[in-house]
Design a protein that fits this description.
By secondary structure, the protein is an all-alpha fold. Helix content is 66%, strand content 0%. The protein is globular. The relative contact order is 0.16.
């Protein structure tokens, strides 16, 4: 392990940003929809809640709302726990892995998946994940109980999932510390230019236009949004501090890997992500401010 001073301040964040698309591509893929339909799930929201919460077992909607944060609890309750009368968490996890495998083969091709670079990325990402901590990290801890798949590209996806959920659990702590409720968190992230668009928020998170408007009014009253619903100087500073807190809480896995390892993993992950973007893996309409 290298000392923390050897790791650049934002190295972990940059690595996460490069890794995360490989984890999340399957959510938008027809392969996952097909696998879940075979289990009796044809509603995409039901599928998302079931797939991401399945490592925790057949939990209720309250647990899912607490760990997912940005979704309206009433929306989650329309799907959880009813889905567990149709299928089981174990069946969903198996279907998810099949979908990840099929999606990766379609989007990246056999040559990339069987390349030395993929095997190297898997080894580096798994080594980083050894530095993750379980306390106060429910989604990460649930995923960490799952076995590591044998195929390098699936092992890489598994490690990317561990690192994603580890950072995500810490990010929720940072949001609470910043005093941002779920809608306010979504609105300020959209205003930063890096988050989901208002259209995407309304389409996927269950909040109403009125609830989004009310959140904007609260944020303006706090001096975080301006009259045009852009971030003020204080709002920008809050988002930056929020990211710094998230980085600090997520530093351990990247410290374990070391600066050289993090740089190499970021390089490899960025290459895979570029290929995913070229393959049209993500719907661009969900992102931006509008």
């Amino acid at each position: 392990m290298t000392s923390s001073s050897a790791l650049p301040e934002r190295a972990g964040r940059h690595c996460h940003n490069a890794l995360n698309p490989f984890h999340s591509a399957h959510y938008f893929a027809p392969e996952l929809a097909g696998e879940l339909a075979e289990l009796g799930m044809t509603d995409s929201r039901t599928g998302y809640f079931a797939v991401r919460s399945a490592p925790m077992g057949a939990v209720g909607s309250g647990t899912v709302a607490a760990t997912f944060y940005s979704f309206k609890p009433e929306l989650i309750a329309q799907h959880i726990p009813q889905v567990w009368t149709v299928t089981t968490p174990q069946a969903v996890l198996a279907a998810r892995l099949r979908a990840v495998d099929a999606t990766a083969h379609r989007q990246l091709g056999d040559a990339v998946l069987k390349s030395p670079e993929m095997a190297e990325a898997a080894e580096l990402a798994l080594r980083a994940a050894e530095g993750c901590t379980r306390h106060a990290r429910p989604l990460y801890s649930a995923h960490a109980d799952l076995p590591v798949p044998n195929a390098p590209h699936l092992a890489y996806w598994h490690a990317a999932s561990l690192l994603r959920e580890h950072r995500g659990d810490g990010h929720l702590v940072a949001l609470l510390d910043a005093g941002l409720d779920p809608v306010e968190a979504l609105v300020t992230h959209a205003a930063s230019g890096h988050g989901m668009s208002h259209r995407g928020i309304l389409a996927t998170r269950g909040w109403t236009p009125e609830e989004l408007t009310a959140a904007q009014e609260r944020l303006r009253a706090r001096g975080l949004l301006d009259a045009a619903d852009g971030l003020t100087e204080a709002g920008t500073a809050l988002r930056k501090e929020l990211e710094r807190t998230t980085d600090r809480l997520d530093r351990a896995p990247y410290e374990r890997l070391g600066a050289a390892g993090v740089a190499r993993l970021t390089e490899l992950a960025a290459g895979f992500t570029a290929r995913l973007m070229e393959a049209g893996a993500f719907p661009q309409a969900l992102f931006g401010r509008e």
